[in-house]
């Protein structure tokens, strides 16, 4: 009945390593499956991954070439005269991150031509490596004397971090160690010439911490983990004469375990927390765990947008105060949403707690997903929750951090969908996909998910162990699914799903066992804590994992910023297979203010209330600005429906 | 019955000149009275002026000395070795502005010792002037070769503008021309060596434009007005290779008449508009008038805080988008509120339209008044409308623009209270004061105002012309006084006051005629246009000209950010003569959320509504942060009072 294909054991370890290699991590409760063990089989994310691999990755390499990012390496490794180095001082990292995305794409979909391209790039990169192992295309030649002199802003260690991550991804995709060995040479140089008593080190932009933890996991060399701990320790604060404003902005340079809130540059802070979580997964240091939990609570209780976006201020690309979540001014860099996603990935691995998956999902489906256009060629750096129609999707940014960050996320998506633990198999995200892997008992297992998610609520999971075996299938019940029914082989499970938890289905599973989950797809109106100044009296619409918005193009005659929702709010879904790659829109009989608000005074004793009926149509947030710039709003005023005038004659 | 003292005619013109000398300005409908013609006689502003003159002005000079601002001049004019120049490149302007404030204070209250101090400072300043007339303590010596090379940020013309304004004030206060002549030497240098075909000029920080207009009015030399026109014309945009972002930020460098909205640095933009209004008052250029009206509408319809504060963003100290009025993040620099006040002063002079006075009053009583502490020694640079308890009142700022700007405003306050026009006498602001001046017919006139404003609504104006004469007394009816009754000598006037207008009382006035105005002091709840994201569903409390706020110290057990108003809202005034210099507080039986909002989730489908009774006490906004930093809020959520539970037993 089923044609089961099980992984062949005895292959080299690199084939078995997932996005993180946590199989020997003492604090890891959950263990990733290899990216290659998961095939996306024609659902929502299949299309996003296809466009990433077929359009985004190739076109971005062309742009990186056009902007000199690869030439920056070539000119150092060649006797030929090249034009001067181009671009900001951190462009090396963009190529490394592109390689990481391209490498993961090979595990999702092998492509010998792309692999050959990466091989050539690796040669170009390594030809630029200095004899001592140092590698950076900016801090060389006339700037060679300034090596390590501008660590707060120089991005030397940041670039190394991405080099390591790209190298590990390529190693796990192909078994090829060349780039990995090159990155190790750089790390060995650090271990030799820097550190306590020698040249002090600082991650002015944290990133290397998580890369070093993964390098430790890949090689087993504890010195790499120790180096990560040194960077997180803040011991060099005095020697480097760091100012408080720098410590805040960089989120490094002072002891990580003394942090009490997220502040400063959002990507820096969240990469630091991700690296610290990796460090905890390996060391179990309780001071780290306490800080990580404090920071996580600070994030989700007061500093995260409803799209999973992070970073309130353009100035410093930074976190704001608690509850400072301005929709139009939101910075919400794609990279920051991804960094928050990675942070929560580690927290989930440490605990198996669905509250972390919930944050990952919120970011992935909304504030990350919005970052790449539907055609895979335009990128958002900022992902605000309100737009006056400014153009924010662009094909190129001189600071090109977000595009390859989105690529590496989408190219490896399957690797985030499942985990294993001692007790069984975990299903985190529901999308059409097929897992071919093994339980931690060693028994081979397949799992196949069929669903219309995120548009419809039916999910079918067919579980097929190689032999009948008792284990737990952990099925995630999202926070938004208030009423969830679960059945196994047609029989309802003993326990109903509790929102925001994993439903543990423990039984003897045999090949072809079928779990059916009916998720609650009723549209939800979210309220923000009244402490959020901009969202008071307003609602955001969510259906399944998708946050919705009003975009001007869909409103017949109603100005988006004059629109309001009428409570109690009926929202009627309509499938639109031809629209924006196929979406479900939500129709609502809402309201507008009688006359355009733009013509009303700024201050008045008169309260303007929306009272004129208006047909409103919501679209998923992630598709905004895909038909050109347009006015857009996530948080919409909501008022009780006006009672019909008694004077009005009945018809 | 009345002891009438009338001005002696035939005195030099400087004694008759007001804050602006508009007597020959073709487009000036209203003409200022001399500052010295108005005495403050023991009301609200008398105390603010007293503290300005007795505490603020003397202590600030000490601080300017301590921080080297005066030494920056001394070192250039002396053979003695001084320490190197100190402070930012624009400190000269701070001393000039201090002189302007001190000079106006002499007209309000003569003080020979202070006058002697200014004389000495003038000598110190002029000793630093270059032989060619150039005067700036930064762009000299080793930087002399960079003169005019960094006009976008160099502040050379900005400092000259303040030199001229200080010089004119001192001239009008004392008749002494020394500083005035020094500033004219600098202007003559500009006319000789710069301009079209010569060194191009740019006000990287507009200010000189208004100073030149006033210099023209003071001297009658049209070349100075023409120079202002040149600076406003933007003709040097090409020669100076100005970028669009610079044109936006500086609000200069491109033709003023092509501006369509306020943007960029708020103080720069509003000084530019003030200078352009001065230019219009002299030239009548209709293109300027059209632009001024467009900008004014942009300001009051979408970019002004309810306190009259201006400038939404810290980044660039700048305007935001339309309706971008964040309360906590508001930049609202004291200087920007003052600049808006000055802009509206010119617009009022051109029209006699009360809508401009209304904006002046809103700023003066609230967003300007808050800028100086009650004891006159601490200053706000920012005047936000919400505070988490950050310390924002400081005695010193290295960029010391706001403190002397506040001083020059308060020291000359009487000069803003009255105007004359061809038809009669205008009363703009109601405070205990006595005007001794003349009508434009030449007939001497006195006016004495007695009132408890801004705390009580009764205003008595005793008008005493030297001889009985028919003229119009224009009594301003503020926008907030919805029901105003006016009586003359006990008889109701024919016309009731219409809010936001001048009530023209035309009759034959004779000495001792008594006008009684009863202003409507009913507390008002203001709503913002729903397009303002942070104010939706909230109200601001205003009573008379004063905007109120909740400050933590006055709330018994209720956290300010958990507080809400209960509608319909009763606000009960209580005079507190001992509190904060004597204020009227407003009591309100409001509400709080059941449990602290800080413990509530960030997003939820549940709407949290305030339902627990709470006694709230509002204090005037301008006194906030005078008892130390504390949480503060102007815009407060407002909900209909919860209906009493039906299950509750009747007692």
From TrEMBL, chains A, B:
What keywords does the record list, in alphabetical order? Hydrolase
What residue stretches are annotated with the Non-reducing end beta-L-arabinofuranosidase-like GH127 middle domain? 425-521
Pfam families under this entry? Beta-AFase-like_GH127_cat, Glyco_hydro127C, Glyco_hydro127M
Q: Which organism is it from?
A: Paludibaculum fermentans
List the GO molecular function terms: hydrolase activity
Q: What is the lineage of its organism?
A: Bacteria, Pseudomonadati, Acidobacteriota, Terriglobia, Bryobacterales
| GO BP of this protein | carbohydrate metabolic process
Under what name is this protein listed? Glycoside hydrolase family 127 protein
- What residues does the Non-reducing end beta-L-arabinofuranosidase-like GH127 catalytic domain cover? 37-414
